[in-house]
């Protein structure tokens, strides 16, 4: 069973991956919340509106997404796209992710014994 610290780290990484996924799709075409939840679910991320919408709002507040409202079927729908800053951030993240994948997934060497850190 994972420790509380381990669970927090997993959640932090999970949310970071969701952010990258959102930026990726918003750079390709405009997105909206329900559609993004379905896309994320298709990739194994079970994320609800209580997590996704605050994440979208924080990405917009940070200047990497911009939104526009449109009436669809009598309801207001908020669409998101990346900004220039969002596109630049995504480009930087792609490079970092590529480097990480090369190092972590391609390194198939035997595991070294763990060393204990002194406190």
Structure at a glance:
The protein contains four helices and two strands; from the N terminus they run αααββα.
How would you describe this structure in keywords?
119 residues; alpha+beta; Arc Repressor Mutant, subunit A; two-stranded antiparallel sheet; 4 helices; 2 strands; 58% helix; 13% strand
SSE layout and pairing:
Layout: H1 4-28, H2 33-42, H3 49-61, E1 65-72, E2 75-82, H4 84-104
Antiparallel strand pairs: 1-2
Helix pairs in contact: 1-4, 2-3
CATH class: Mainly Alpha
Rg measurement, Å = 18 Å
* CATH overall fold name: Arc Repressor Mutant, subunit A
Quaternary organisation: single chain
Average predicted confidence as pLDDT = 90
Sequence of secondary-structure elements: HHHEEH
Biggest beta sheet attributes: 2 strands, antiparallel
Helix content bin: 55-70%
Output the number of helix runs.
4
How would you describe this protein?
With 119 residues, the chain is of the alpha+beta class. It has one domain: Arc Repressor Mutant, subunit A. It has four helices and two strands. It has helices at residues 4-28, 33-42, 49-61, 84-104, and strands spanning 65-72, 75-82. Strands 1-2 form a two-stranded antiparallel ribbon. The longest helix has 25 residues, at 4-28. The protein starts with a helix and ends in a 15-residue tail after the last helix. The model has no long low-confidence stretch (mean pLDDT 90).
């Amino acid at each position: 069973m994972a420790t509380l610290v381990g669970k927090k780290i997993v959640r932090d990484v999970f949310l970071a991956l969701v952010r990258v996924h959102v930026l990726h799709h918003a750079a390709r075409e405009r997105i909206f919340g329900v559609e993004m939840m379905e896309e994320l679910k298709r990739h194994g991320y079970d994320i609800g509106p209580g997590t996704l919408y605050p994440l979208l709002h924080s990405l917009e507040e940070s200047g990497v997404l911009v939104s526009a409202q449109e009436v669809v079927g009598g309801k207001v729908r908020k669409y998101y796209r990346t900004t220039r800053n969002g596109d630049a951030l995504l480009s930087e993240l792609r490079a970092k992710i590529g480097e990480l994948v090369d190092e972590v997934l391609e390194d198939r060497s035997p595991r070294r014994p763990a060393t204990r850190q002194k406190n």
